[in-house]
C-alpha cells in the first residue's frame, strides 16, 4: 500500500512538472517572437539606410548629368537636395551596423570611401561646367573615374544588402525552428502525461479493493489528474493556435486580410466569448469596427476614443452591469455580461481596441481574460507591423507633393510592362510631360504657387488615364505617363487631350490666374526593342523638340542613336 501511494505521489508530481513546463512554452514563444521582430527591424533599418545612400547618390549624379549636358541650373535641384542629405547619411551609416563582421567592415569602408570620392567628383564637375563649359567636363567624364566609384558603391550596397537579407532569413528560420520545438515538446508532454495517467489509473484500481479510504483517495487523485489533463489539452491547443496565428500574421498581407485572420483565430481561441476589433486612423478621430465574432458581438459601429475607459487609461478595463465606470460605447448594460476593453498598443502607440463580451459567472473567466490579453498583444503587434509595412511601401512609391507614383515606381513598372509587352506582342507608349516656363512661375509667384501648379497638374494627369495606365512624377516639373497596350497614335491623341485640359486648367494666385501649359514627348516600345533606357531617351528627346517648336505641343519621337543624343541635347 505504501509502495502504491509512493508511486501515485511520484506520478502526480511528474504530471505537475510536465504541466508547468508546458505552461512556460507560450511566454517563451512570445519572447522568441519579440527578439526576432526586434532583430528584423534592425536589419530593415540597415537596408533602408543602404537604399537611401544609393538613391541619394543616383539623384546627385542625375542632377549633375542634366546640368553638365544642358547648363540649366534647374537640373541641379536633385543634386542640391542629395548634397544636403548624403554626407550625414554616410556619417550615420556605420553606427547602424552593430558588431559588424570583417567583411561588412571592409564593404562599409569601400562604400563610404567611393561614395565620398564620387560626391567630390560630382561637385568638381559642376564647378568646372560653370567656369569652363561642357568640353572641359567632357574630358574628365571620359576618364570613367566617376563610373568606377559609382560601380564600387553599387557593388558594396548590393553585397551588404545580401548579407542583411541572409541574416533576416536566418532569424526567421531560427524562430520557426524554436516554434516547432515548442509544439513538439507540447505533444511529447501530452503523451507522457497520458501514459502516466494510465499507469496511475491501474494503481488506483488495485487500491480500491484493499481499502475504502484508499479508494476514495485514488478517486480524488484521478479526478484531479483528469482536470489537469483537460487543462493540458486546452493549453496545448491554445499554444498551437497561437503559434499558427503568429506565423500567419508574420506574412506580408493587406490590413483587411490581417483583420479577417485575427477574427478567425479569436473565434477559435475564445469560443465562449463574443467580441469586436476597432481601429482608428492614427489621429484623434473615431474608432470604427473592422471585425466582429460571436452571437453577442458589440453592435456599436464607431465611437470616439474618449468614450472608452480602457483607451483613456491605456489598460484593460472590465465592467459589469452595475459597474460605476462604464464605457459609453458598450451600450445598454445586461445582467450577467462582462464587457472587457483591451487597448491595442504596439511600439508605444494606440492602434485601436479589442472589445470582449463574456459570461460574468464563467468558471474559466480568469483564464479567458489572460488568454485574451496574450491574443491582444499579438494582434496589436501584427496589425502595427502590417500598417507600418503599408505606410513604408506607400512612402517609398509615392511623391508626397502630387500623390503620383515616384521615379522608382516608374522605372520598375516600365520594366515589367515592357517585359509583358514582349511576351504578348503588344506595345507600350511612354509620354514625357514637361510643364512650360515653370521656373518663371516660381520666380514670379513663389514656390507655394509652384507647388499648387504641380498638385493640380498631378490630379489632372491621374484622372485622365485608364486604370491600367500610370502617372509618375519624374522630378521637378517633369512627369511620365506609362500607357500599356497603347500604340503611338493613340498615345498622341491622349497627350493632346491632356494638353488641352492643362490649358483650360484654372489655378489662381492671390486672385490672379496662372496659365499652365506643357510640352509632350512620345515614344513607343516597338521602336527601341523594349529597352527602357532607349525608350526614355527617345521620349525625352521628343520633349526637347517640343520645347524648340515653341512649347505647348505634342511631338512624337523620331529615333536617334545613343551616340547622337547627348551632343544634340547639350
TrEMBL record:
CDD domains: GGDEF (cd01949), HK9-like_sensor (cd19410). Pfam families: CHASE3, GGDEF. PROSITE patterns: GGDEF. It catalyses: 2 GTP = 3',3'-c-di-GMP + 2 diphosphate. Residues 426-559 form the GGDEF domain. It comes from Roseateles asaccharophilus. InterPro entries: CHASE3 (IPR007891), Diguanylate_Cyclase (IPR050469), GAF-like_dom_sf (IPR029016), GGDEF_dom (IPR000160), Nucleotide_cyclase (IPR029787), Rev_trsase/Diguanyl_cyclase (IPR043128). Signal peptide: none annotated. Keywords: Membrane, Transmembrane, Transmembrane helix. It comes from the Bacteria. The chain crosses the membrane at residues 12-33, 182-201. This is diguanylate cyclase. Its EC number is 2.7.7.65. SMART domains: GGDEF (SM00267).
